[in-house]
Amino acid sequence: MKNVLNALRVLEEVAARQPIGVGELARVLDVPKSSVQRALVTLHTAGWIRPGPGEVTRWVMTSKALAVGGRAGSDLGLRDVAVPVMEELRRRTEETIHLTVPEEDKLVLIERLETSKPVRISMALGHALPLHASANGKAVLANSRPEVVRRLLATELPRYTDTTITDPDDLLAELAKIRARGFAVNHGEWRSDVGSVAAAVVTEPGKPIASLSVNLPVSRLTAESETLYGAAVAEAAKTVSGRLR
């Protein structure tokens, strides 16, 4: 079982950081190189990864992962369209980029591209984010039908940090602000050290299907970067929306 878990962890990190070598994987996962190498051989033999171009072996994902992911859900087409846009957004911002999708009363992270900066935001694929306390969630709420927002406000909004919005009127005012400027901002409302700027992917009015976000430590989310990243992520989300219509 331990070997299986190691292989899955290696697979996830290859997906997030590709192309990546055995040494970097060992450092990121804090496991011996020999264990990482065994996992890489297993994943390569099974067809999940392959060596990337270049003299030094660095691993990348194969299309098998996308195919299996597509059978597990309906977001394969979204990923296909979004990933190139996410790559450009990462190039422009040099920060970690997330793609999330709504699932009942939360957002689920389905794709991420990480920054090369040493201090970064790390979150596993499949992680759930709250609607009212994340930039992704607020972007989705701001573009959802009124009844969706009313249903959320009919329940108590959990507080995660000192800056979490828990008052319904305050949240409604925040959503109006998001609609006016085209993007949402999170200043440590879910995790006190995490900042993000997000915009919704909308192909039909009132029904956002996803959101894109730029994610970074709160210390790097300044007034200037907020404006720049907000414009960039709004443009990226609009591009994804247009390509999916």
From TrEMBL:
- Its name, as the record gives it, is IclR family transcriptional regulator
Can the keyword Zinc be found in this entry's annotation?
A: no
Biological process terms from the Gene Ontology for this record are: negative regulation of DNA-templated transcription
Report if keyword Transcription is assigned. Answer: yes
Which UniProt keyword terms apply here?
DNA-binding, Transcription, Transcription regulation
Molecular functions per Gene Ontology: DNA binding; DNA-binding transcription factor activity
- According to its UniProt entry, this protein's organism is Amycolatopsis taiwanensis
PROSITE patterns in alphabetical order: ICLR_ED (PS51078)
Question: Which segments constitute the IclR-ED domain?
Answer: 64-245
SUPFAM superfamilies, from UniProt? Answer: GAF domain-like, Winged helix' DNA-binding domain
